[in-house]
């Protein structure tokens, strides 16, 4: 069935015509344990400002019956139910069935392989509520939602408003939830299943963790950390936003076969991949904190105040990404999160912003399908960095005061970015028009360099194709103190044109542009300064100064100004002295990426040996042992590394799986070894770990079997596709992998099946990185024109990155 994508003009017309008063949604899940069906009756009460006018409701599920004011309606077309001759006050009642709960949008049934238990989750961003029940599926038609859910008797049901009335109906139970506050359809949710539930009172809130029964022990292990972070987050946001979260109950539901996390009001849905089966590393703990605080920030920015249309999607996501780092650095033990942001997300944003998918942070969005294509590195980490720059530009105290005024003025409504700019201008006393034109309406990344002349120092800034944006940034002057560098001066300047004088002391050993990482801009030092930076990065005194240097080196690698060998040697030198847990794992990943993906084939073994030595040295520190051994399992240089790893894996099942995959790359890792570890591993997704071992083997039959499960059967959970694909696409296996490039291209038209998250995951993670050439990249670029927008943008971005890798490999 063809499903139309809602156009902005249609949404504006419908919003001008209608005011939605209330949704009453009855959801029947009793058919799910034995079958695929979710049945719903949606009753929508709404008024019309032009009686007699016509509009439509959205419903992409199978419609059993539909009536408007008691009069039967014709069947829907292309996912739309025509509503003719509207009265001033209207009641729409639609009974619908969704039976594609395995690979369809909006609702998903997952069967736990550990015990056969069934769990169901719903996720509606950007416009997937219509795949489950009838609604007006656009963000600016907010209304209270009253959910009544009938489910099997041993299930727990979680929804937005909490504290339901529960009645027993034979073998089933009915859960009647209180009305939600006014919410957009995409922020509503029903999650259900035989959950293990943990509850705690903290900070005036009733906090819940719900998880499938087979992961109860993992959830109990992590509960204290999750509850502590939740309490800290509420304390921080309620203070800086000047508005308490207005509901006592706040649930966090961890479900199988979900991608990422979703900020449903009062009931956040998580991928339970984020509940690590073995003890989490420091970076994994920090990632959980960032996810948790990101989704919590959305309670205010996205739920309580909602964007009017998807052209301000960036603001929802960028603000939550900025706010989670802000909160973590000020209210939790994760004080180095901005260094972690620079080492991972911000680097991906710099790369995306210099490629073919670069777009203004805020841009016109003509329909919702187009909106799904901009959940990207420009919207998230670049947007967060831009808001970090805005906070520096107006001052953090004034920024917080503006946010308090914003929520007080617009609570439970919808806004545009101009509404936020207005309150921040009032709070700061600054005219922000030039700032928003430069930062939000222009694509690309500014480039800033430092020039030294007889008259002194000058920052030279160039915007993408024109003058630079307004920047507040710092330049640090450093001198050697033995083997270390110490900062002797820090000058903060406001860049408002191409050339800005900087009052720096002469004679420093190193000048670091964008010290403290206050702005979003690349710095490309000249040959002499680049050489100094490569040799001195490890001598810098703080995680953030080393991070700025490392980011500069990485940016020059992807632009072809630095070799993979130079990058690996620089990053491993930084790793030898690094003190921050936030960046150890990202730097290990960068070094391994440079050695595997960016290095000429003739240098791979040498660089792998360099990284192997760095990992072995790191493993001598008990605090770094786990992450070092994991990194070595990825980059092992031969049987000696494998044997060394196996001796140290001990009883750590996670490490044992990694060692088996490592052995498999060299022709080992027998089926008997895999079977024995499967018996010992309590993880319900242990079968995926076994599949990664098969994926790593340089064996044509194994590659074929893994490809079948990944792409045809789609049996691998979306969150695990990246792990299996990483072992599938291995350097040195080019001859085996070459036939899969055209097969990948043939699958592109179907990658959008199942919604936005699977589309991005499959397009990105399965993209061939070995066994391809420039001609293949041209082929997929041509094919992109016929793909869904979310597939097209992901494809073009990945083709650009792989093209850069190929040029770097060529030397």
From TrEMBL:
Keyword Thylakoid assigned to the entry: answer is: no
Q: What reaction does this enzyme carry out catalytically?
A: Release of an N-terminal amino acid, Xaa-|-Yaa- from a peptide, amide or arylamide. Xaa is preferably Ala, but may be most amino acids including Pro (slow action). When a terminal hydrophobic residue is followed by a prolyl residue, the two may be released as an intact Xaa-Pro dipeptide
* Record-linked SUPFAM superfamilies: Leukotriene A4 hydrolase N-terminal domain, Metalloproteases ('zincins'), catalytic domain
Please list the residue ranges annotated as the ERAP1-like C-terminal domain: 510-786
This protein is called Aminopeptidase N
A molecular function (GO) held by this record is: alanyl aminopeptidase activity
Q: Which residues form the Peptidase M1 membrane alanine aminopeptidase domain?
A: 230-439
What cofactors does this protein use?
A: Zn(2+)
Q: Which residues form the Aminopeptidase N-like N-terminal domain?
A: 117-186
Taxon lineage:
Bacteria, Bacillati, Actinomycetota, Actinomycetes, Kitasatosporales
Record-linked CDD domains: M1_APN (cd09602)
Sorted alphabetically, the keyword list is:
Aminopeptidase, Hydrolase, Metal-binding, Metalloprotease, Protease, Zinc
Give the organism, scientific name: Actinacidiphila polyblastidii
EC number(s) from the headed UniProt entry: 3.4.11.2
- Write out the similarity annotation: Belongs to the peptidase M1 family.
């Amino acid at each position: 069935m063809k499903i139309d994508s809602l156009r902005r003009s249609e949404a504006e017309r419908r919003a001008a015509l209608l005011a939605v008063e209330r949704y009453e949604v009855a959801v029947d899940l009793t058919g799910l344990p034995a079958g695929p069906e979710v049945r719903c009756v949606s009753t929508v009460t709404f008024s019309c400002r032009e009686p007699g006018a016509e509009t439509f409701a959205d419903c992409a599920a199978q419609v059993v019956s539909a009536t408007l004011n008691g009069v039967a309606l014709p069947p829907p077309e292309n996912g739309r139910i025509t509503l003719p001759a509207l009265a001033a006050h209207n009641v729409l009642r639609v009974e619908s069935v969704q039976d594609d709960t395995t690979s369809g949008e909006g609702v998903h049934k997952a069967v736990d392989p550990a015990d056969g238990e069934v769990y169901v989750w719903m996720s509606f961003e950007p416009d997937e509520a219509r795949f489950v029940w009838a609604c007006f599926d656009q963000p600016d038609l907010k209304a209270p939602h009253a959910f009544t859910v009938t489910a099997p008797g041993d299930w727990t049901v979680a929804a937005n408003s909490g504290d339901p009335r529960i009645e027993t109906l034979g073998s089933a139970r009915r859960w009647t939830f209180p009305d939600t506050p006014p919410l957009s359809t995409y922020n509503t949710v029903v999650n259900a299943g035989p959950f293990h539930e943990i509850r705690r009172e903290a900070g005036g809130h009733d906090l819940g963790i719900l998880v499938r029964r087979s992961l109860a022990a993992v959830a109990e292990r992590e509960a204290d950390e999750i509850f502590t972070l939740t309490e800290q987050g509420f304390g921080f946001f309620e203070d800086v936003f000047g508005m308490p979260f207005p509901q006592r109950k706040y649930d966090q539901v961890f479900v199988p076969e979900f991608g990422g996390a979703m900020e449903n009001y009062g009931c956040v849905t998580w991928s339970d991949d984020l509940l690590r089966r073995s003890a989490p590393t420091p970076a994994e703990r920090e990632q959980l904190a960032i996810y948790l605080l990101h989704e919590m920030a959305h309670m205010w920015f996205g739920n309580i105040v909602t964007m009017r249309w998807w052209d301000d999607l960036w603001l929802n996501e960028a603000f939550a990404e900025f706010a989670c780092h802000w909160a973590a650095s000020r209210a939790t033990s994760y004080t180095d999160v901005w260094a972690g942001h620079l080492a991972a997300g911000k680097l991906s944003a710099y790369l995306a912003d210099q490629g073919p998918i670069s777009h203004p942070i805020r841009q016109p969005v003509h329909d919702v399908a187009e909106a799904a294509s901009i959940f990207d590195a420009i919207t998230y980490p670049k947007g967060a960095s831009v808001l970090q720059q805005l906070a520096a530009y107006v001052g953090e105290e004034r920024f917080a005061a503006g946010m308090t005024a914003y929520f007080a003025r617009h609570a439970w409504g919808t806004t545009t970015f101009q509404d936020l700019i207005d309150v921040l201008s009032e709070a700061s006393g600054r005219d922000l028009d030039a700032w928003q034109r430069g930062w939000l309406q222009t694509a690309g990344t500014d480039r800033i360099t430092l020039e030294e002349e007889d008259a002194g120092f000058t920052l030279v800034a160039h915007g993408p194709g024109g003058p630079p944006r307004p920047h507040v940034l710092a330049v640090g002057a450093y001198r050697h103190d033995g083997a270390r560098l110490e900062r002797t001066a820090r000058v903060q300047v406001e860049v408002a044109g191409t050339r800005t004088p900087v009052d720096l002391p002469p004679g420093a050993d190193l000048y670091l542009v964008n010290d403290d990482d206050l702005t979003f801009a690349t710095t490309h030092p000249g040959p002499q300064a680049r050489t100094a930076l490569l040799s001195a990065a490890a001598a810098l005194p703080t995680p953030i100064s080393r991070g700025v240097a490392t980011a500069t080196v990485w940016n020059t690698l992807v632009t072809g100004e630095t070799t993979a060998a130079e990058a690996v040697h620089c990053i491993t030198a930084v790793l030898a002295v690094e003190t921050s847990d936030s960046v150890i794992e990202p730097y290990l990943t960068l070094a391994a990426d440079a050695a595997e993906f960016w290095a000429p084939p003739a240098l791979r073994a040498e660089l792998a040996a360099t990284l192997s030595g760095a990992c072995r040295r790191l493993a001598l520190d008990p605090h770094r042992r786990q992450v070092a051994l994991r990194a070595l399992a990825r980059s092992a240089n031969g049987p000696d590394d494998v044997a060394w790893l196996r001796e140290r894996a001990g009883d750590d099942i996670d490490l044992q799986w990694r060692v088996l995959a490592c052995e498999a790359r060299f022709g080992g890792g027998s089926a008997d070894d895999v079977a024995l570890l499967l018996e010992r591993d309590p993880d319900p997704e242990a079968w995926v770990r076994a599949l990664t071992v098969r994926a790593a083997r340089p064996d044509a039959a194994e590659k074929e079997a893994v490809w079948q499960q990944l792409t045809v059967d789609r049996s691998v959970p979306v969150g695990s596709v990246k792990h299996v694909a990483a072992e599938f696409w291995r350097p040195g296996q080019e001859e085996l992998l070459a036939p899969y490039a055209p097969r990948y291209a043939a699958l592109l038209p179907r990658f959008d099946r199942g919604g936005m998250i699977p589309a991005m995951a499959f397009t990105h993670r399965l993209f061939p990185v070995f066994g391809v050439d420039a001609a293949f990249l041209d082929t997929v670029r041509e094919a992109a024109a016929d793909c869904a927008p979310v597939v097209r943008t992901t494809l073009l971005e990945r083709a650009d990155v792989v093209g850069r890798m190929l040029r770097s490999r060529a030397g």
